[in-house]
Amino acid sequence: MKLSSIIAGLSAAVVAFQGVAYAARGQASLLRPPGAQSEQDFLSRCIKCGKCIEACPYLALSPARDDAGFAVGTPVIDARAQACRLCEDFPCVSACPTGALRDISARSEVRMGVAVIDEDVCIAFQGMRCEVCYRTCPLIDQAIHIDYRLREGDAIHSVFAPVIDEDACVGCGLCVERCVVDDPVVAIRIAPAAERAEQASG
Ligand code: SF4
Ligand code: SF4
Ligand code: SF4
């Protein structure tokens, strides 16, 4: 075996090991592009080449900053700044040379995370009509619907409450980008897939 092959193999092993160690430390709750599998799998394959970032026509991807530890330089999405548009041909996935992003042929297969509404902050739960997140969702009436009901203890006024379907929401973040409330916090956020996996494992 050539020395260059051995070095390449060792480098890949070190990257994979560091990725596993990073994921195992539970520091991963970054919003990843479509096609990322588990955080451990993603970190073991991503070589931080930036090809997915370059391929995104909406500039939704950027390299993780210095405070991301080992994950610095890996592609992340700041949904409030610029959400994923769920391109039909997924150029980010096609551009990935290592398979860190893979196995996506339809929007419904994306599993970036799940939207979570803060009912104390969302104005719809306070009795105002908004529906911005609902109208902006590319999976309207699948990932999100409006629950029309009378306000508790009020026979006249209605609540038009947005409700997320956790099985259908893909975590694109468009609802977060467009939410009209950001004080004291944005009324809707994405719980990234890694965060949900961490919670599920206890
Ligand atoms: S699906 Fe499109 S918008 Fe979303 S990250 Fe990939 S290239 Fe960017
Ligand atoms: S993240 Fe928001 S916009 Fe995207 S699918 Fe889920 S509810 Fe719809
Ligand atoms: S856009 Fe924001 S404030 Fe409006 S209904 Fe959706 S979560 Fe609530």
Largest sheet: 2 strands, antiparallel
Number of strands: 6
CATH architecture classification:
2-Layer Sandwich
The fraction of residues assigned to DSSP E strands is 5-15%
- CATH top level is Alpha Beta
Pfam family, one: Fer4_7
Keywords: 4Fe-4S, Electron transport, Iron, Iron-sulfur, Metal-binding, Transport
Protein name: 4Fe-4S binding protein
InterPro entries: 4Fe4S_Fe-S-bd, 4Fe4S_Fe_S_CS, RnfB_subfamily
Task: Give structural notes.
This protein is an alpha+beta fold and 202 residues long. The protein has one domain (3-200): Alpha-Beta Plaits (2-Layer Sandwich). Helix content is 28%, strand content 15%. It has helices at 3-24, 39-45, 51-55, 91-95, 132-136, 174-178, 193-200, and strands spanning 61-63, 75-77, 113-117, 144-150, 158-164, 188-192. The strands form three sheets. Strands 1-2 form a two-stranded antiparallel ribbon. A two-stranded antiparallel sheet has the order 3-6. The chain has a two-stranded antiparallel ribbon with strand order 4-5. It is elongated. Mean pLDDT is 89; it is low at 3-26. The chain binds iron/sulfur cluster (SF4) (3 copies). One iron/sulfur cluster is lined by residues 115, 137, 139, 143-144, 164, 169-175, 190. It comes from Gordonibacter faecis. InterPro entries: 4Fe4S_Fe-S-bd (IPR017896), 4Fe4S_Fe_S_CS (IPR017900), RnfB_subfamily (IPR050294). Keywords: 4Fe-4S, Electron transport, Iron, Iron-sulfur, Metal-binding, Transport. Residues 36-66, 73-107, 113-149, 160-189 form the 4Fe-4S ferredoxin-type domain. Pfam families: Fer4_7.
